[in-house]
Amino acid sequence: MENVSIQVLKGDVTERNTDAIVNPINTMLILGSGLSGAIKAKGGEEIAGECSRHGPSPIGSAVLTTGGKLKTRHIIHAVLCEYDGRITEQHLADALLASLRLANRMKLRSIALPHMDLGISPLPVERSARALFSVIRDFADRENRTLELIEVVLQDIELLRVYKDAHHHILG
């Protein structure tokens, strides 16, 4: 893991200047509310158009689109669940791993991740955070070839605390 920096930051993931940001999304790839809505509002309709051409996509997959008008060049849409469906730790792990592998295939050097949730049927925050850092650790140790920076960017101060604790527990 010494070849990749993993940071937990307070901020707005849509404002990051990384090569890509990750957007948790449902199988229909519809940019609705929450983070997806903010991406559509700030990045433009072009992103929604690309999503509609890729959807539907299976749970555990990842789809790359342009970043539109955002600072980032790309958005990796991590498919977590069916529309209005339940998110499991396995879904989160599979979609995040697919996203990290896609970043490597595209030879990206930096990526920013939000809290991996859609708000419909959320996992407990502690479980989400631990699953996220476990996947990052295993990917960085075994598969990473191009990523030099992985940011976990959270707006909510309580989420930030939970993720920093999980980061310390999982990554040391």
Q: What letter string, H or E per element, gives the SSE order? A: EEHHEEHEHEH
Q: Could you describe the largest sheet, including whether it forms a barrel?
A: 6 strands, mixed
Taking all Cα atoms into account, the compactness measure Rg is 14 Å
Mean pLDDT value: 94
Biggest sheet: strands side by side, in what order? 1-6-5-2-4-3
Unreliable stretches: none
CATH topology, what is it called? Leucine Aminopeptidase, subunit E, domain 1
Query: How many helices does DSSP assign?
Result: 5
How far the N terminus sits from the C terminus, by CA atoms, comes to 11 Å
Structure description:
The chain is an alpha/beta fold. The protein has one domain: Leucine Aminopeptidase, subunit E, domain 1 (3-Layer(aba) Sandwich). 41% of the residues lie in helices and 21% in strands. The protein has a six-stranded mixed β-sheet with strand order 1-6-5-2-4-3, with helices on both faces. Helix 1 crosses helix 2 and helix 3 (89-105) packs parallel to helix 4 (125-142). The longest helix has 18 residues, at 125-142. The protein is globular. The mean pLDDT is 94.
Looking at this protein, list some descriptive labels.
Leucine Aminopeptidase, subunit E, domain 1, six-stranded mixed beta sheet, 5 helices, 172 residues, alpha/beta, globular, 6 strands
Task: Please render the helix and strand layout as text.
Blueprint: E1 5-10, E2 20-26, H1 34-43, H2 45-54, E3 62-66, E4 74-81, H3 89-105, E5 110-113, H4 125-142, E6 149-154, H5 157-171
TL;DR?
Helices cover 41% and strands 21% of the residues. The protein is α/β, with parallel strands linked by helices and 172 residues long. The longest helix is centred in the last third of the chain and has 18 residues.
